[in-house]
Design goal:
Two copies of one chain form a homodimer. Chain A is mainly alpha-helical. Chain A is built from eight helices and two strands, in the order H-H-H-H-E-H-H-E-H-H. The first copy, chain A, has helices at 2-28, 33-56, 62-92, 103-115, 130-151, 153-172, 191-207, 210-229; strands at residues 124-126, 176-178. The first copy, chain A, is globular and about 55 Å long. The termini of chain A are far apart. Chains A and B meet through helix 1, helix 3 and helix 4 of A and helix 1, helix 3 and helix 4 of B.
Chain lengths: 231, 231
């Protein structure tokens, strides 16, 4: 019974990884980017619950933490990377220019290796967390056809390249980012989180998928502002 | 200069991960399983050299070890899983029965989480290592059309399901497996390794790709024999 209890969180983490693999297949074999994005979100739900269940059952373990990273690199590193790859390929009819997308998985792995065992991260993150990376690319990849209409293929390709390195750099940077894990719940203590939720809702209503990417950019900006003000 | 030196092994590990992602794209977008298999092998070469370079430059680190696992789960867990998935899909014209292949990635992640920080593993492994898992599935996936001719679709589907659980179980099992890292080079001390090389060469000559899978089965068998005899 105890052995089964111990394995429940790991089973949930495995479901996170499998969700990521399903997202990859939906992108590349079925060219269904929206459904793929949903599976990445499903992975995020499993990712949220595995830790929660492990703590509730009091079976947190180093193996569980390692497994978590291994699932995260697939669901929030490789899967978004493939999502952007397929999105860029769709708008440009050529897989080569989409190759830059593959770096996202490598940046995510670097981040997970560098920061997952970083004890400085308790109620805040250092660098952009990988689920935020996933949300950014879901929004961007799903908005590519609209962005192509708006700004043309060539500038969009350049923008994609810049963003891959910008988001990649932020993941492995030492920039402090606030989290939703707070010690004490108060309106003032949660002001940055509340502003972000407000931006997220508004931008999703008006810009649909692109709102997801803008929310992550707002998150980065708000974190920098919070950091400057608290000094 | 020192910072660059420190990053060289991590750069090589990142190339391992990217090779795995390229293999996944070659499978699903181009249905080119042979080229995908070559990229998994390329990943294995990077995997071999990152540790070697880290030790040579004296820059081994816990971050490097973690990054190694994160790349391995993609190249030797998810990529072989996708290879089998596409292979099964090709012979059965239906993606659903191929779904069992997705478990390979989850088993590989469980293995990496469970054993990568296991200090008992020095000159031998406990359970089947993930590169051996990758070699097994490369051989099996590339031989699927031939196996279908030989035994028919339905029995082959059942065999695939059994093998996924058998190889998956071996990865997370406590079965001791010998390695090629030996303390002292002698003909007698290396007898199991030499028998395995002999089987690998012979089976590859006579059975081509299927020889890869048979070599891994021989490796499992020889490890069990060695283990029984040394008791």
């Amino acid at each position: 019974m105890n052995a089964i209890k111990k394995d429940i969180p790991n089973f949930i983490t495995a479901l996170n990884l499998i969700s990521g693999v399903v997202a990859i297949i939906l992108c590349l074999s079925f060219n269904n980017l929206e459904l793929a994005a949903l599976f990445i979100f499903l992975g995020a739900i499993f990712d949220f619950f595995d830790g929660l269940v492990a703590r509730a059952l009091n079976v947190s373990s180093p193996i569980g933490a390692d497994l978590d990273s291994l699932a995260d690199v697939v669901s929030f590193g490789v899967a978004p990377s493939i999502l952007l790859f397929q999105g860029l390929w769709n708008i440009s009819c050529c897989p080569w220019s989409a190759g830059v997308a593959l770096l996202i998985g490598a940046f995510a792995a670097l981040r997970l290796a560098k920061f997952n065992n970083d004890t400085r991260q308790t109620t805040s993150f250092i660098g952009l967390p990988v689920p935020a990376n996933a949300i950014f690319w879901i929004g961007f990849a799903l908005s590519l056809p609209m962005l192509k209409e708006l700004m043309g293929l060539y500038p969009l390709n350049i923008l994609s390249h810049i963003l891959v390195f910008f988001i990649g750099y932020l993941m492995i940077s030492e920039v402090p980012m606030f989290s939703f894990k707070v010690k004490k719940i108060s309106f003032f203590g949660l002001r940055y989180q509340l502003i972000l939720i407000f931006i997220a809702v508004l931008s999703f209503i008006f810009l649909k998928y692109l709102g997801l990417s803008l929310t992550i950019l707002a998150y980065i900006l708000l974190s920098i502002v919070q950091n400057k003000l608290s000094k």
